[in-house]
Each structure stands twice: as structure tokens, then as C-alpha cells.
Amino acid sequence: MPTLTCIDRSGQTGEFTYSVAEGMADASGTEWTYRARPIDGDPFGEFFELTVTELSEDAVRVVMMANNDYAPVSAKGIPDALIPQVAAELGRQVQSSPTTGGTADVRRSEDATKVWKRLVKKNLARYDESSDIYFTIPPEEKCST
């Protein structure tokens, strides 16, 4: 199983395994569900989950992100590592949902906004104010500092 190296809110590094399942999302196209678990945890136990839905050949949208109130995957930096990994694996830009104007299924929470703001700070994402959407930056566009 592939692994993610994550940095939690206290600066500690942790290792997680993840799996991905591909399926059809209603009429909107393909969706991918990623599940991350502690590397030494039960492979069938609780997990952090992130689901993206196809927007186009070049982009997917995060439609669900949840730690399922499971302490071993809460505040561990998993989405900060997983969102760029999803972009790399799928070869597509990953976009957030907007905070307003969307349907009940397409709306960004305050917690998700915090994740995306951290990605912007790390130069892994940008924010478009006019659409209220965050999006990952392709590796060739990232600035070196």
C-alpha cells in the first residue's frame, strides 16, 4: 500500500498508508475515494477519507473530507499531504468547493478552508477570489523560495 508522510499540528512527522477506490459519481462522472490509516493501524479500522469528483479531463473537485472523529487521523496533516498526492496521481488540478452558492453537496466547510489556506501558505495551492475556489498548483508553476 502506498504511504504518506504527514506533519501534524505540533510538528511531529507521522506515516500513513492509503488506498483509493474509483467509481462512478451519479451523472457527474468518475469519483475517487482515498482512505488513509495509521501505518501500524488496523487495515480494516477507522480512517481519514477524501473524495474527489471529476470536473473535466484536467480537474477534480474535493466533495468530501472527513476524519470520522477518529483521533489517530485527526490533526495529523493528512489532507495537507493527500491533496497534492491526489493531484500528482490523477495528473489533474484538485479544486475546492466554494463556500457559498453551491448545493448541499458542493460547499466548502470552515475546516476545509483551513486546510486549503495551509496549502496556499506552503505554495501548494492558490485561491481565486472571484470564484471562491482554491486549486492545486502544477509542479512546474511553483515558485522556489
In a few lines, what is going on in this structure?
This protein is an alpha+beta fold and 145 residues long.
Overall tally of domains: 1
Judging from the principal axes of the Cα atoms, what is the shape? globular
Beta-strand residue percentage: 35-45%
Pattern of helices and strands: EEEEEHEHEE
Helix/strand-derived class?
Answer: alpha+beta
What is the strand tally? 8
CATH topology: Aminopeptidase
3D structure, described in words:
The chain is of the alpha+beta class and 145 residues long. It has one domain: 3-Layer(aba) Sandwich (Aminopeptidase), CATH 3.40.630. The protein is 17% helix and 37% strand. It has two helices and eight strands, in the order E-E-E-E-E-H-E-H-E-E. It has helices at 78-90, 110-121; strands at residues 3-7, 13-25, 29-38, 48-54, 59-66, 93-95, 125-128, 133-136. A six-stranded mixed sheet has the order 1-2-3-4-5-6, covered by helices on one side. Strands 7-8 form a two-stranded antiparallel ribbon. Strand 7 (125-128) and strand 8 (133-136) form a beta hairpin. It is globular. The termini are far apart.
Kindly list the characteristics that best describe this protein.
145 residues, alpha+beta, Aminopeptidase, 6-stranded mixed beta sheet, two-stranded antiparallel sheet, 2 helices, 8 strands, globular
